[in-house]
Amino acid sequence: MSVMWMSELSQRSGVPVPTVKFYLREKLLQSGVATGATRAVYDESHVDRLRLIRALVDVGGMSLDRVRAVIAAVDDTGRDLHEVLASAHEELSPVPEREPSAESRDRVARLVRTRRWKVTPQGRHSEALAAALDTLEEAGQGLPDDALTTYADAAALVAKGEVGSMSGASREGAATYAVLGTVLAEPVLLTLRRLAHENLSSRRFGRASARS
Amino acid sequence: MSVMWMSELSQRSGVPVPTVKFYLREKLLQSGVATGATRAVYDESHVDRLRLIRALVDVGGMSLDRVRAVIAAVDDTGRDLHEVLASAHEELSPVPEREPSAESRDRVARLVRTRRWKVTPQGRHSEALAAALDTLEEAGQGLPDDALTTYADAAALVAKGEVGSMSGASREGAATYAVLGTVLAEPVLLTLRRLAHENLSSRRFGRASARS
Fold first, then answer.
1. Is B109 on the interface with A (CB under 8 A)?
2. Out of A133, A155, A195, whose CB is closest to B126?
3. The complex's ipTM?
């Protein structure tokens, strides 16, 4: 395994040297191997750790305390990969601005039960989903059950591919991917939905397109 | 068809009276039927129009000029429903902060061609998609082709149900739904994806869950 100085570590990870030093002091980044009184060398594991920290901070929008908790989960080999991923995912769903209605909570609980999804009951994602259902309801666009089922099917389809691709990764790599892949891929999914809308609307409702 | 005074129109639509008057002056809202020198009555068509305006402004984040363009499309029966929906959808995708790479644009064009999607070439949604692919690439999380295919399948699945449910609606109702359904349902799709992740990760990587 090749080693590198601080300057190369900074370059490789895209994290400025003062910030790398800050992470070292905060013990978020493991120490390098000392090669003298004031110098140390680093390796790929440091690059990976810095990428994870940046993903959690920049993309996940997490506080340093939260970052510390995720890294503790990565480092504690007594915790399984699912716990690591759950920890990295925890803050990615918004906290609902107010409490979801009992109806929407029931609806989410029913969906989870019907699909036998193994998820934290009334966890952060469930609560955010219930709140999103309330918002639609209040806008007079309540989601019928079959539409919710279709959404759940689509979500399961997407998640299957995503979680599958984590299997081969290191704990650190999987946690990084869990944050980056989840957040950064969202616009891909949402813009594809708009393109698919445009296509179907054009085919179903477009007179001009029927001629072409 | 029952008629109503301004006060009831305001109450039914949730739009304050001064704002209703502003929309009347701006000719975004059609006039009521005059019942005297200073009074007029309104009907359901006014409630629907106000709901559309509020959807475009509050949820779609559109300028008044843009709202005027959508309403012109709704009112111009020479334009088919697809044009109305495309107009309502137009600004819902973010304008990429910088130009997408040629590679990502090609990738989007290829996807559209392979699926025979009838969409505006290099339209707003395509550009936003290409930019989102660039962002993933730069974060070292480039989306493989099979993952993009899975996302497109999921998007097509979701859009099919959504566009189908517009068939029976009025032009105004369909435009309102196009904006509200598209924007407000996004958190539903995204939180379901997280729940599906949690479930799969728990099943594949969770030791504790294997015991239960």
1. no
2. A195
3. 0.85
